[in-house]
Amino acid sequence: MTVLCLVLDLKVFSIHGRLFPSGYVSLGFGAFKDKYLPIYNSLTVVLLVLTGIGTVIWGYGDLFVSI
Predict the structure, then answer these.
(1) Three-state secondary-structure class, residue 67
(2) Whether 64 contacts 57, CB under 8 Å
(3) Which of 34, 51, 52, 56 is 20 to 30 A off residue 6, Cα-Cα?
(4) Residue 54 burial (CB < 10 Å; 0-12/13-18/19+)?
(5) Residue 4 belongs to what H/E stretch?
(6) Which of 16, 56, 9, 11 is nearest to 36 (CA)?
(7) Is the pLDDT of residue 67 over 70?
(8) pLDDT tens digits for 14-66?
């Protein structure tokens, strides 16, 4: 689960280049950014939380079973 979340985080980071391009962009880019920036931010937070949960389960999963 942790490795999958890290791979997905790399895919989400590739979207970062499209939302924050270097150089000049067209006039309609503001609407595009306003539409997709909240989705990008929420995906980043969800993947961070899932990576943390996966890491805890991966590291302490054997202790949870014995409790």
Answers:
(1) coil
(2) yes
(3) 34
(4) middle
(5) helix 2-19
(6) 16
(7) no
(8) 888 888 888 888 888 888 889 999 999 999 999 999 989 988 888 888 777 76
Q: How is residue 37 written in tokens?
A: 């920036």
- Count of Cβ atoms closer than 10 Å to residue 28 Cβ: 8
Structure tokens at 44: 């980043």
In this structure, what token pair is assigned to residue 34?
Answer: 């306003």
Whole-angstrom Cα distance, residue 37 to residue 24?
18
pLDDT at residue 59, rounded to an integer = 86
DSSP notation for 12-66: HHHHHHHHS-SS---TTHHHHHHHHHHHHHHHHHHHHHHHHHHHHHHHHHHHHHH
